[in-house]
């Protein structure tokens, strides 16, 4: 096939892959598109492989995270042409991970020819790298597509990365089984596929219930994003939350979403004080997203602002967001960037990073692992907190990406965190998708998006440690490096390749 044909197919395969994820759930595609990509790299030069990797990544992120356009243009006030260019640049930048991935694959682990071991090893290695390089963007991992399939039984053992490992292994082994002429390779691929097909039989109950289930109410106020940070609307919005909570909630725990209180507590107190007092008298707990300010003499401004989640009742407690969104919650080189356009001067885009070690949110009777917005996409961050917690809560304001595929992808990621950690999870959002997820990663209850509503449900505290909580990503990385060593050794010895 001419190179331009391979290039178009690589772009197409990448662009097709997001259909395997929520909200489409065409999960068998996740076994097809990596195999096609694997086949396209066969007998290509290092330069050609690098370009094919970049084009696959451009297709994947160009369709899978195109929703950033909404926040840039609709809410950031950036003209359409520049918003399109910024979205394209974002996708093109993320695609460089795939370009480097296929460069290394072609340079060290496949030449001349191609190997299953090298392809799998580099894929998993770069999924892990995407979780922390340049603060990380751990989105569209292959393993998420296999949620709610029999293969998700491996998530509590090795996290989403182990599910991704199984996905890419099945994909490439099927491809090699159908294309190779060597009997030994066919037998080894057939054995690998057979073993992986037994993974649905693995243990699923790694944690145990504690006590009786208890009720939780989650308030979804559906505040318009273009009005949320306007001080003139603050009284109306706070009273909406207060009235919904007063009239429609009775549960011992009530959760409001990210920055449900879009002001410092000193400004919001006149509107929420009576509600908090009533809930304290009844022994109830109110948890809400809120910006918080801490005096700091070492800061240039004399203080630091945090995107926080607070227990507003009782003795109170605070969790500060640890993974800030670049250009949304902080602006690199802000003195220059803020002069370029309105998108770089969004409300509350001057948050600070807290100390790296934080404890779960604590109330009188429970410890709660907190994750704000896209922090829930960081498996290792959530894992560390979840080990010390009875259940998980994640709050978000997906109004930034309304009526796109982003909220559904975000919910799917939250489901994987619940499954990995064997804990129930409450997801509270401003306009959806608000849901309660059980310890198996299944959505127990959900309310419709884009409307004012309260979710009434119950959750179960759980204790115990899953294998993934104990060992983290380390075992999957070891497997990845072993595969890379095998591929490199075969390349050097010129033996038949897998």
Provide key terms for this protein.
498 residues; alpha/beta; globular; 17 helices
Topology, pairings included?
Elements: H1 3-16, H2 33-40, H3 46-64, H4 68-75, H5 80-110, H6 116-129, H7 142-145, H8 155-179, H9 183-196, E1 208-209, E2 214-220, H10 225-228, H11 234-248, E3 253-255, H12 265-281, E4 285-295, E5 303-311, E6 317-320, H13 334-337, E7 361-362, E8 367-372, H14 379-386, E9 391-396, H15 406-421, E10 425-429, E11 435-437, E12 443-446, E13 453-459, E14 462-463, H16 467-471, H17 474-493
Parallel strand pairs: 2-3, 3-4, 8-9, 9-10
Antiparallel strand pairs: 1-14, 2-13, 4-5, 5-6, 7-8, 10-11, 11-12
Helix pairs in contact: 1-2, 1-3, 2-8, 3-5, 4-5, 5-6, 6-8, 6-17, 8-9, 8-15, 11-12
In one word, what is the shape? globular
Based on DSSP secondary structure assignment, what is the total number of beta strands?
Answer: 14
**How helical, in percent, are the residues?**
40-55%
Tell me the major beta sheet.
6 strands, mixed
> Which structural class matches the secondary elements?
alpha/beta
Give the spatial strand order of the biggest sheet: 6-5-4-3-2-13
Note the total helix count.
17
Strand content: 5-15%
Report the radius of gyration as a whole number of Å.
Answer: 24 Å
User: How would you state the average pLDDT, rounded?
Assistant: 91
**Unreliable segments of 5+ consecutive residues:** none
Distance between the termini: 22 Å
């Amino acid at each position: 096939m001419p190179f331009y044909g391979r290039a178009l197919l690589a772009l197409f395969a990448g662009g097709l892959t997001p259909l395997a994820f929520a909200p489409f759930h065409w999960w068998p595609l996740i076994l097809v598109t990596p195999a096609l990509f694997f086949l396209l790299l066969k007998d290509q030069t290092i330069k050609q492989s690098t370009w094919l990797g970049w084009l696959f990544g451009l297709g994947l992120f160009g369709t899978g995270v195109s929703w950033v356009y909404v926040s840039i243009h609709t809410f950031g006030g950036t003209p359409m042409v520049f918003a399109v260019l910024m979205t394209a640049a974002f996708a093109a930048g993320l695609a460089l991970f795939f370009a480097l991935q296929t460069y290394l694959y072609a340079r060290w682990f496949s030449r001349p020819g191609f190997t299953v071991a090298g392809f799998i090893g580099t894929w998993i290695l770069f999924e892990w790298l995407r979780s922390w390089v340049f603060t990380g963007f751990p989105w569209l991992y292959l393993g998420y597509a296999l949620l709610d399939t029999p293969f998700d039984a491996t998530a509590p053992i090795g996290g989403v990365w182990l599910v991704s490992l199984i996905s890419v292994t099945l994909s490439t082994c099927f491809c090699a089984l159908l294309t190779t002429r060597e009997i030994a390779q066919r037998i080894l691929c057939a054995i690998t596929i057979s073993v992986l097909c037994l993974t649905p039989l693995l243990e699923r109950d790694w944690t145990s219930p504690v006590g009786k289930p208890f009720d939780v109410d989650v308030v979804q106020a559906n505040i318009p994003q273009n009005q949320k940070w306007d001080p003139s609307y603050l009284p109306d919005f706070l009273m909406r939350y207060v009235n919904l909570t007063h009239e429609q909630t009775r549960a011992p725990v009530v959760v409001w979403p990210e920055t449900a209180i879009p002001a410092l507590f000193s400004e919001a107190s006149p509107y929420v004080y009576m509600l908090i007092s009533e809930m304290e008298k009844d022994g109830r707990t109110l948890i809400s997203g809120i910006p918080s300010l801490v005096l700091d003499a070492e800061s240039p401004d004399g203080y630091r602002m945090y995107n926080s989640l607070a227990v507003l009742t009782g003795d109170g407690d605070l969790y500060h967001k640890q993974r800030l969104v670049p250009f949304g919650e902080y602006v690199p080189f802000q003195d220059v960037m803020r002069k370029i356009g309105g998108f770089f001067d969004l409300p509350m885009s001057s948050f600070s990073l807290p100390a790296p070690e934080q404890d779960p949110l604590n109330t009188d009777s429970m410890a709660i692992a907190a994750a704000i917005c896209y922090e829930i996409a960081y498996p290792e961050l959530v894992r560390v907190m979840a080990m010390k917690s009875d259940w998980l809560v994640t709050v978000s304001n997906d109004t930034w990406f309304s009526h796109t595929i982003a909220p559904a992808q975000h919910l799917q990621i939250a489901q994987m965190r619940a499954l990995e950690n064997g804990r129930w999870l409450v997801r509270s959002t401003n306009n959806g998708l608000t849901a309660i997820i059980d310890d198996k990663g299944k959505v127990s209850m959900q309310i419709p998006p884009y409307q004012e509503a309260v979710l009434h449900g119950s959750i179960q505290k759980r204790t115990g440690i899953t294998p993934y909580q104990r060992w983290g990503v380390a075992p999957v990385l070891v497997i990845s490096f072993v595969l890379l060593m095998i591929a490199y050794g075969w390349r050097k010895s010129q033996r038949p390749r897998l």
